[in-house]
Amino acid sequence: MLDKMDVDRPSEGAEVWEKVVRKLRTAAMPPPGMPRPEQSGYDSLTTFLETELDRSAAANPNPGRTATLHRLNRAEYTNAVRDLLALDVDAIDLPSLLPADDSGYGFDNIGDVLSISPLLLERYMSAAEKVARLALGIPSARPDVTTYEVSKFLKQDDRVSENLPFGSRGGIAIRHYFATDGEYVIKARLRRSYDGEKILGLAESSQIEFRLDGTRVKTFTLSADRRKGPESEQEPDAGLEVRIPVKAGTRLVGVAFPQETWAPEKNSLHEFSFVGVGLKFD
């Protein structure tokens, strides 16, 4: 092959001459048993070839694949926030703030497919504002309310989460990211009848516990058949709330009923359950 190559114009066969340079640098050419030049001859030819190849590459650059500017998709953006700012991305739930990414060939991280529209840019800017606020510990200008709902199909006659203590029944345990140090209000709402006046299943008095990071902060006692009177505008579970100081960061919030007895016949008398828990920053 080399007998057909023009050594004076190595740019015309750059790929072949690149291989020749590597062979010369390792003294693999000429092959064993063949006459070999002096080391100065090796160096002279190698330097000439490298210089000509570099000059040709500089005069005719090859940028490679010129794809569209690759923006981050939702997963990549979430991982970048986690790695750069050390935020709990699971608590922030960034994917819910951003629209679904376009996909091509079954993948959603192809630069040519990931377009940028004005609406998408607006959503990313909105998510970035929330991330920056949480990273700097700056609370919202107005009270911030977050609500966690419990599925009405969840059976709450036993311990429902590994994050709730043994001997508890029903309730909810959630990991919430508190943006800054301050006082927070944690409020529970119980499931009620269709007219909204009676808490379902509350046939006898029972207790309900509020916990933060596994530590009980307050216990309430619910009276039997608790309902809103005809002349009262107060909700049956209006008093089920605590105001406590919380340090910034991800905290485990739990609300549940203590299991008063293991006898199923007693627990079946008051199988009332949660609708959800709300957290408010004042």
Describe this entry's structure for a reader.
α1 (14-25) packs antiparallel against α2 (39-59). The chain is an alpha+beta fold and 282 residues long. Mean pLDDT is 76; it is low at 262-282. It has helices spanning 14-25, 39-59, 74-85, 89-92, 118-136, 264-267, and strands at residues 144-149, 168-178, 182-190, 206-212, 215-222, 241-246, 249-258, 274-281. Strands 1-8-3-6 form a four-stranded antiparallel sheet, with no helix packed on it. The longest helix is centred in the first third of the chain and has 21 residues, at 39-59. The protein is built from six helices and eight strands. It has three domains: 2-59, no CATH class; 74-136, no CATH class; 144-281, Sandwich (Jelly Rolls).
